[in-house]
């Protein structure tokens, strides 16, 4: 039941600190700063990883691609399941397929899994529903432990998918000798800090709701991010489209001047996801391009980022400071709450948006 919340989406958004802590209790060793999985996953012998999913689960794969590549040095290909299954991609025994699905029943993701298995690839399922078809048909299945997700818009499943994928990337790095004990301990402690950071981010809800009131009047919205914040920009745009029916697009910040900047005027809010990290200055220079054209930019960063670059922005939102590994998980919160409150202001059906089903079991 919804408890004190008006919608399942709100309840599920607010459950994130608890379910993430539960997931880490399962996937991190209790008294050591190490990843510890209940089932063996072998990354040592894999030549490449292909990650296949749909919608929000695909964006989780997109974030994880950065982690597997930068932490473990494994080449990763990502694809949406409806494309993967029909383009006849080469697959061999050195290919590890990771199939990410909340429901575990998404038709295209299941078909992609069957395609990979039929060609001799190894398969790992990352699912919420442990009894699902995708879990049963994969060589190994790991649950994200998010608990039931009722709202059509995926929230806690996304962040729990990311949490488990981060653990897998750390494990892969260890197995391939790309990280030492101290490095692993550092990353694990960053993960352990995440539930507390999520709880802090959720306290920003009144400020986010204020911004959402303005955003709810927009016809078009752009989301920008670089590196692992690029898939977060895509996810923020998807959430907004899905439940508020506002047209939104996510772009890699560096792509702005290759087309989308033509859309920018004072009527188009541009939401810039830019934690203080190695790419911060680059993203901010893209934000300046928006401002120079009369655009309205919302800078979502931490206090240091806002201090450095907030002047001139239309609005700012000060997030807790987070390590680069966990920032993409943390920044899901403002993306979710912005979409949620924009939808509430518009009066749309948040939990059952028009034309959508929770689980897409047909092609
Ligand atoms: O159950 P799955 O994770 O396989 O579902 C995939 C997508 O249909 C799903 O993430 C969809 O994009 C969400 N409604 C987005 O909020």
TrEMBL record:
<feature type="domain" description="SIS">
    <location>
        <begin position="37"/>
        <end position="178"/>
    </location>
</feature>
<feature type="active site" description="For Fru-6P isomerization activity">
    <location>
        <position position="358"/>
    </location>
</feature>
<keyword id="KW-0315">Glutamine amidotransferase</keyword>
<dbReference type="GO" id="GO:0097367">
    <property type="term" value="F:carbohydrate derivative binding"/>
</dbReference>
<dbReference type="GO" id="GO:0005829">
    <property type="term" value="C:cytosol"/>
</dbReference>
<dbReference type="GO" id="GO:0004360">
    <property type="term" value="F:glutamine-fructose-6-phosphate transaminase (isomerizing) activity"/>
</dbReference>
<keyword id="KW-0808">Transferase</keyword>
<dbReference type="GO" id="GO:0046349">
    <property type="term" value="P:amino sugar biosynthetic process"/>
</dbReference>
<dbReference type="GO" id="GO:0006047">
    <property type="term" value="P:UDP-N-acetylglucosamine metabolic process"/>
</dbReference>
<dbReference type="GO" id="GO:0006002">
    <property type="term" value="P:fructose 6-phosphate metabolic process"/>
</dbReference>
<dbReference type="GO" id="GO:0005975">
    <property type="term" value="P:carbohydrate metabolic process"/>
</dbReference>
<keyword id="KW-0677">Repeat</keyword>
<feature type="domain" description="SIS">
    <location>
        <begin position="211"/>
        <end position="353"/>
    </location>
</feature>
<protein>
    <recommendedName>
        <fullName>Glutamine--fructose-6-phosphate aminotransferase [isomerizing]</fullName>
        <ecNumber>2.6.1.16</ecNumber>
    </recommendedName>
</protein>
<comment type="function">
    <text>Catalyzes the first step in hexosamine metabolism, converting fructose-6P into glucosamine-6P using glutamine as a nitrogen source.</text>
</comment>
<keyword id="KW-0032">Aminotransferase</keyword>
<dbReference type="GO" id="GO:0006487">
    <property type="term" value="P:protein N-linked glycosylation"/>
</dbReference>
<comment type="subunit">
    <text>Homodimer.</text>
</comment>
<keyword id="KW-0963">Cytoplasm</keyword>
């Amino acid at each position: 039941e919804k408890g004190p919340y008006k919608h399942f989406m709100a309840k599920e958004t607010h459950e994130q600190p608890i379910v993430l802590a539960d997931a880490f209790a399962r996937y991190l060793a209790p008294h050591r700063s190490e990843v510890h999985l209940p089932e063996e996953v072998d990354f040592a012998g894999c030549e490449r990883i292909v990650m296949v999913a749909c919608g929000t689960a695909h964006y989780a794969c997109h974030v994880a691609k950065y982690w597997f590549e930068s932490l473990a040095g494994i080449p990763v290909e990502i694809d949406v399941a409806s494309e993967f299954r029909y383009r006849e991609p080469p697959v061999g025994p050195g290919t590890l397929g990771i199939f990410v699905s909340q429901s575990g029943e998404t038709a295209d993701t299941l078909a992609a899994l069957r395609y990979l298995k039929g060609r001799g690839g190894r398969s790992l399922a990352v699912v919420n529903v442990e009894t699902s078809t995708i879990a049963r048909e994969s060589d190994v299945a790991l649950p994200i432990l998010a608990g039931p997700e009722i709202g059509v818009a995926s929230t806690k499943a996304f962040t729990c998918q990311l949490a488990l994928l981060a653990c897998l990337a750390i494990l892969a790095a260890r197995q391939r000798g790309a990280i030492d004990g101290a490095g692993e301990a550092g990353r694990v402690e960053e993960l352990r800090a995440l539930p507390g950071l999520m709880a802090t981010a959720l306290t920003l809800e009144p400020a986010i709701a204020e911004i959402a009131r303005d955003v709810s009047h927009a016809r078009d919205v752009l989301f920008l991010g670089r590196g692992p914040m690029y898939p977060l920009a895509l996810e923020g745009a998807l959430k907004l489209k899905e439940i508020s029916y506002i047209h939104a697009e996510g772009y890699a910040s560096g792509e702005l001047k290759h087309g989308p900047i033509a859309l920018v005027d004072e009527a188009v809010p541009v939401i810039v996801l830019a934690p203080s990290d190695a790419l911060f200055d680059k993203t901010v220079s893209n934000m300046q391009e928006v401002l120079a054209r009369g655009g309205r930019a919302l800078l979502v960063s931490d206090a240091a980022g806002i201090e450095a670059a907030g002047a001139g922005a239309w609005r700012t939102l000060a997030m807790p400071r987070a390590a680069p590994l966990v920032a993409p998980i943390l920044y899901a919160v403002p993306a979710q709450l912005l979409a949620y409150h924009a939808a509430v202001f518009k009066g749309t059906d948040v939990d059952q948006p028009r034309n959508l089903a929770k689980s897409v079991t047909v092609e």
